[in-house]
């Protein structure tokens, strides 16, 4: 892994950990490809809540999420300006819980308009993000943006080789989507300021795990410079 950059996980690593990473040559840069797409994972109202009202939003990531939304919007606008496709996922569940699956064993179905139930305010995309003509919005029911969705088919049809993955939460749906992207031999890029989580240590260690094996964790500025340099992917 790069030794000359500061990362969110630096403070959690021991010298022994660093020796293991060096010996195994983990964390090389895969780099950007030629044809990018942006995949926006669950940037929904239920994920970020409302400033001063987070107690009423049971899954809100609070200020951390709201700050990340501003960075996500920068990435999305840059991609749209270059004609690179953006895919927006929305995680939503039927109000009766009929499609929650095994998740019901880990969490209660929350009867709240501020959660992710279909047809509620909470399930909507945040208002700071506006899909452009040619962008695609679809619902997912599982953590990964690939499972049970048309995402892979869209990426293949557009000959995409690089997916910039933003949104939340880092330790759940971002991580699952990154691992599946790598399993499909896509270059996965994670701009660290444009992903967010409810728990800071989960965010940091998940970024570490992704960067170590299956993705490049970079800055938003690096992604913006890349998007400005590539030809239109559409």
CATH level 4 superfamily of the domain at 35-90 and 125-136 and 143-229 = Isochorismatase-like
What is the approximate shape?
globular
Could you tell me the radius of gyration in angstroms?
Answer: 17 Å
Strands, total number: 7
CATH architect. name of the domain at 35-90 and 125-136 and 143-229: 3-Layer(aba) Sandwich
Approximate helicity band: 25-40%
Secondary structure tally, helices: 7
Mean of residue pLDDT values: 96
- Beta content: 5-15%
N- to C-terminal distance: 33 Å
CATH class membership of the domain at 35-90 and 125-136 and 143-229:
Alpha Beta
Largest sheet: 7 strands, parallel
| pLDDT < 50 stretches | none
Order of helices and strands: HEHHEEHEHEEHEH
- CATH fold group of the domain at 35-90 and 125-136 and 143-229: Rossmann fold
Protein structure class? alpha/beta
